Every structure is written in C-alpha cells, then in structure tokens.
C-alpha cells in the first residue's frame, strides 16, 4: 500500500527544486526524469531537465537535439532540456587543473612540468565523473530555473562528495593555513614589501566555499530529493537498497521509491501464454519484497506496450508517477 504518493510528497515540499532519479541501468531513470520534468513544468515552474551523463539519451527521449545548450522543448513553454557536452567539460577541467598544478609547482619552486601530473591524474575514470559532478553543481549554483530534474543521479559522486567533504574541508583548511605561513615567511624574507597575488590561495578558499554550498544544497530536505527506481526484480531491488542506505548515512534526502514496468494484470487474460503468467507470478513475489523493504513507495508505473518517447508518452508516464 502506498502511504504517500509522489504528488503528496511534492505538496508537502513546496520548495522542492532539485529532483534526482537513481537506480540500476535500464530501469527507467531517463524516462522518469523526463516525465517528472514535464509534469513540474506543466505545474507552472520554469524547469530544466539536464543530463550530466556522458552517454546521453535526452535527445532521443524528446526526439529533438538538446545537446550542448539548454534548449526549449517543443510545445512546452516552461521546459528546457540540456545534455551537457562531456568532452568540453573534461577539456576545461584539464586546463584548469594544469593551471593549478603550475601555480603550485611555481610556488614550491619545483622545476617539473605540470603536464606529467595532469596526464596521470586525468587518466583516472573518476576524473570524468567529477567533471560531470562539477557541471551539475555549476547548474545548481547558477540558479536560473525554478526546478531542476537531473537524469542519472550522480550516486557514487554525491556519496563520495559528502563522505569526503569533512575530510576535504580539513585538508583545505590545512592547505590554507600552511599557505598563509609560507606567504608571511616569503614576505619576511623578501626586501620588497609589496603584496604578492596568490591565485592558489584564492582557489582553495573558493573551493572550500563551493564544497560547503554544494553540501548545503544536496542535504536540504526542503529543496532536494533523490528518488530511486526499481523493477519488481531481484537485482534492481538490491541496487536501490544499497543506494538508500548510503544516502541515509550521508544525510542526503531520499524522496522515495518508484516501481516501474509492472505488468497490468487486467490487460492480461486468463488464457495468457505461460511465459506471461510466469512473469506476472515473478513480479508478484518481488512486489511483496518491495512492500516489505520500502515503507516509502511513492508510485507504481505499468509496463507500456511500447517504449517511452516523446512528450505524449512522457505525459502518460507522468499520470502514473504523479497519480
Ligand atoms: N514503463 C515503461 N514501459 C515501457 N517501456 C519503458 C518503461 N519505462 C522505461 N521504458 C523503456 O525502457 C528503456 C530503458 O529506460 P531508460 O529510462 O532509458 O532507463 P535508464 O535511464 O534507467 O537506463 C527505454 O527504452 C524506455 O523507453
Ligand atoms: Mg538513462
């Protein structure tokens, strides 16, 4: 039994602004993000549907090119969609990192080229992930929309960020402190008393502020909610159980659980093929597990006769997501 629907949840959180959907691959994250964005936009909020995932699918979902810039969705005056250009972001992050390492090396009087450090740092797949995460944070900070729906929750990243943030904070504070000491020593030793510009220090202070602000937004129960999507199947259930535990641990607000692709029994006659009856029996068993495991199921979405594409199908999905 659903005790609180998605619609009721949003009514109880009128300031809701950042909505995320997480779950195993293929469970319908992109579809639900699209449906939610459409619904929120039609409620009258200026809404951005954004994808930070390097493997984009919004253009295909909406049947229009939304790559590289926020693009108005046809026929929806309050909705824009945006697939962020991953390659562009990574190139920018690389350039930024190079600059920072150069500052650092120069300050420490080390005669090594920054490139070597940068190459090894950016070979790591986590680098792409964190570049994407930065992009998402930037969008949130720009604050140009009344609501944001993100396709593909940066699950591991959000968790890492929040888990790391206190460690990070300590580290940044330590760095700031030692830079201040180094600076005053440098000033003492130099004959000229003119103040040196310190871009690395500015960067560290800025980073600390950004981290604090990101944490504040991502843990704000009134503004942020992560919804987790599952199918009535073993693996997707196991995945979101894990996610929900992580998120609770880090104080990230969990909006609830959405169950997708449920076979409509009424549409299936008594004389249905054994294959279909078996799948229904399997779903029934996993639905019981879902009710037992999640007290916060918000919506049940049926398996449609076709894939979900275009605003008409998204609207149909939204009718269930916000029933
Ligand atoms: N309720 C549904 N009924 C029918 N097809 C669905 C439903 N939900 C999702 N799909 C289809 O399943 C596929 C996977 O959905 P998608 O949103 O891309 O998953 P994810 O983003 O989690 O990988 C897509 O082809 C989508 O159109
Ligand atoms: Mg997707």
Can you put this structure into words, describing what you see?
Helix 2 packs across helix 11 (310-321), helix 4 (86-107) packs antiparallel against helix 5 and helix 7 packs antiparallel against helix 8 (199-218). It is built from 11 helices and 8 strands. Helix content is 55%, strand content 14%. The chain has a domain at 6-84 and 143-170 and 221-321: P-loop containing nucleotide triphosphate hydrolases (Rossmann fold, 3-Layer(aba) Sandwich). The protein is α/β, with parallel strands linked by helices and 323 residues long. The model has no long low-confidence stretch (mean pLDDT 87). An 8-stranded mixed beta sheet has the order 3-4-2-5-1-6-7-8, sandwiched between helices. Adenosine-5'-diphosphate binds next to helix 2 and strand 7.
């Amino acid at each position: 039994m659903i005790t609180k629907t998605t619609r009721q949840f949003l009514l109880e959180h009128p300031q809701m602004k950042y909505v995320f959907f997480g779950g195993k691959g293929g469970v319908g994250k992109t579809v639900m993000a699209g449906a939610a964005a459409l619904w929120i936009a039609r409620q009258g909020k200026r809404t951005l549907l954004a994808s930070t995932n390097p493997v984009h699918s919004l253009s295909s979902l909406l049947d229009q090119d939304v790559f590289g810039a926020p693009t108005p969705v046809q026929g929806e005056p309050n909705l824009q969609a945006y697939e962020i250009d991953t390659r562009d972001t990574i190139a920018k992050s690389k350039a930024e990192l190079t600059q920072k390492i150069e500052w650092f090396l120069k300050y420490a009087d080390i005669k090594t080229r920054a490139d070597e450090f940068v190459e090894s740092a950016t070979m790591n797949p986590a680098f792409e992930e964190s570049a994407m995460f930065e992009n998402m944070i930037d969008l949130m900070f720009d604050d140009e929309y009344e609501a944001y729906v993100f396709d593909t929750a940066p699950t591991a990243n959000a968790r890492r960020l929040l888990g790391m943030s206190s460690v990070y904070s300590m580290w940044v504070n330590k760095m700031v402190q030692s830079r201040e000491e180094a600076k005053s020593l440098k000033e003492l030793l130099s004959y000229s008393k003119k103040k040196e510009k310190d871009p690395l220090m500015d960067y560290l202070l800025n980073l600390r502020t950004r981290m604090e602000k990101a944490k504040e937004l991502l843990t704000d129960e009134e503004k942020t909610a992560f919804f987790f999507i599952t199918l009535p199947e073993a693996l997707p259930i196991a995945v979101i159980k894990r996610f929900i535990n992580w998120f609770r641990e880090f104080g990230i607000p969990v909006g609830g659980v959405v169950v997708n692709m449920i076979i409509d029994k009424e549409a299936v006659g008594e004389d249905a093929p054994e294959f279909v009856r078996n799948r229904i029996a399997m779903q029934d068993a996993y639905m019981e597990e879902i009710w037992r495991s999640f007290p916060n199921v918000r919506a049940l979405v049926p398996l449609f006769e076709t894939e979900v594409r275009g605003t008409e199908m998204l609207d149909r999905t939204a009718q269930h997501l916000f029933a």
